[in-house]
């Protein structure tokens, strides 16, 4: 995979389209620092920008283009015992140096339109679980933004309920996964909601739990 011209990178194009769809006008976008993956894909871009809102006011001038991501909230059901646990992952993160309890997730990078396929790929890579696109359920009708004052990262949340035989269910606990080329050292674990809320320090994981709970309430009322 080759390095693209900055302006043609899908995540840059997508950011421009999103901002313009919101009624803003982009007058200037100058990259100050670019970081690429080994594959040549743009990973992050810090840019100086001039963006005018629909009322003629200027927005703050710096944007950190990170691109969108997806998170998968898998509820695993033991078909033998009917026990249910959330399938989560433990991995040490450079942002805080700690071992974080999270849900499987990944960045879309150049696969802007292939959101579900990225979600399936990340679930398989980080947990070993293989499902199909029709097994995924969107937990919100679009991306959710955690820090739109500085970053473009919008996160798509998906949920799924997976039934496994007793041996497969038990084999998930402590399973080692991850993409070694990206320095991922992941340990799979099964948690109740109460355990997850007690142990996780991830805002994204807590939001995933809340969205999935709301999804379950709606489906059970239907």
Q: What would you say this structure looks like, in words?
A:
The chain has 222 residues and is of the alpha+beta class. It folds into 2 domains: 6-65, no CATH class; 69-221, Nucleoside Triphosphate Pyrophosphohydrolase, CATH 3.90.79. It has helices at residues 10-21, 115-127, 166-171, 193-199, 203-221; strands at 25-36, 42-52, 62-65, 69-78, 84-92, 99-102, 105-107, 137-138, 144-145, 154-164, 176-177, 186-191. The strands form 2 sheets. Strands 4, 5, 6, 7, 8, 9, 10, 11 and 12 form a 9-stranded mixed β-sheet that branches. A hairpin with a 6-residue loop joins strand 5 (84-92) and strand 6. The chain is globular and about 60 Å long. The protein starts with 9 loop residues before the first helix and ends with a helix. The mean pLDDT is 94.
Helix and strand layout, with pairings?
Elements: H1 10-21, E1 25-36, E2 42-52, E3 62-65, E4 69-78, E5 84-92, E6 99-102, E7 105-107, H2 115-127, E8 137-138, E9 144-145, E10 154-164, H3 166-171, E11 176-177, E12 186-191, H4 193-199, H5 203-221
At CATH level 3, the topology of the largest domain is Nucleoside Triphosphate Pyrophosphohydrolase
N-to-C series of helices and strands: HEEEEEEEHEEEHEEHH
| Strand percent estimate | 25-35%
The total count of helices amounts to 5
Structural class: alpha+beta
Helical content, roughly? Answer: 25-40%
| Broad shape | globular
CATH architecture of the largest domain, by name, is Alpha-Beta Complex
Counting DSSP E segments of at least 2 residues, the number of strands comes to 12
- pLDDT below 50 for ≥5 consecutive residues: which ranges? none
Give the biggest beta sheet. 9 strands, mixed
The CATH class of the largest domain, by name, is Alpha Beta
């Amino acid at each position: 995979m080759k390095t693209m011209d900055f302006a043609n990178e899908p995540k840059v194009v997508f950011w421009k389209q999103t901002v313009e769809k919101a009624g803003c006008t982009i007058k200037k976008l100058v990259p100050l620092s670019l970081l690429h993956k080994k594959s040549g894909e743009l990973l992050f871009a810090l840019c100086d920008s001039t963006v005018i809102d629909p009322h003629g006011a200027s927005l703050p001038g710096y944007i950190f283009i990170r691109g969108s991501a997806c998170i998968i909230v898998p509820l695993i059901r033991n078909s033998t015992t009917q026990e249910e646990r959330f399938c989560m992952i433990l991995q040490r993160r450079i942002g805080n140096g700690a071992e974080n309890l999270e849900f499987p997730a990944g960045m879309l990078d150049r696969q802007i339109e292939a959101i579900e396929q990225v979600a399936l790929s990340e679930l398989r890579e980080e947990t070993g679980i293989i499902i199909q696109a029709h097994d995924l359920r969107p937990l919100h009708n679009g991306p959710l933004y955690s820090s739109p004052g500085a970053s473009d990262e919008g996160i798509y949340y998906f949920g799924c309920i997976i039934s496994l035989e007793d041996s497969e269910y038990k084999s998930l606990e402590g399973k080692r996964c991850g993409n070694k080329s990206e320095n991922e050292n992941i340990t799979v674990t099964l948690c109740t909601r109460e355990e997850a809320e007690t142990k996780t320090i991830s805002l994204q994981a807590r939001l995933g739990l809340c969205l999935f709970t709301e999804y379950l309430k709606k489906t059970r009322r239907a």
